Amino acid sequence: xxxxxxxxxxxxxxxxxxxxxxxxxxxxxxxxxxxxxxxxxxxxxxxxxxxxxxxxxxxxxxxxxxxxxxxxxxxxxxxxxxxxxxxxxxxxxxxxxxxxxxxxxxxxxxxxxxxxxxxxxxxxxxxxxxxxxxxxxxxxxxxxxxxxxxxxxxxxxxxxxxxxxxxxxxxx
Length: 172
Prior knowledge:
By secondary structure, the chain is an alpha/beta fold. The protein is 36% helix and 13% strand. It has seven helices and six strands. The chain has helices at residues 5-13, 28-34, 49-70, 81-90, 104-108, 140-143, 154-158; strands at 21-22, 40-41, 74-78, 93-97, 116-120, 131-134. A four-stranded parallel beta sheet has the order 3-4-5-6. A two-stranded parallel ribbon has the order 1-2. The two termini are 14 Å apart. The mean pLDDT is 92.
């Protein structure tokens, strides 16, 4: 969500219609709502192997249903096999953004169906002629100084001095 929120807002400001589909996974809905981005709920995934297999069908179906209704010209996703597969069914281009090299099983359900794969230059794998490397990292989408302004009040709320060393740890 952080990767795409500015792109979504920029496209909407330029009078493009943007349709967002999202899986019910913490904290995606809360982030979309905090950014006032409307979205279509494509359901909750599962942790079991059978549930994951069934969600592949459900995820594709929900995106296909939304695509038939809204008729998108282009699909843009962050490593979504669902969007890539539906784009192929509808004969539309799909641009996939990826920075994760170890998700090889996921790749098999995404790469064959997309038209373009955007990766940072630091991405080691060669994905063939669909791959376009860019000179940056994905985090700069939301942490670039033109987009992100640190809140100096955060130190007070955390009970630390601005000069005190600290660590930010993200667990996913």
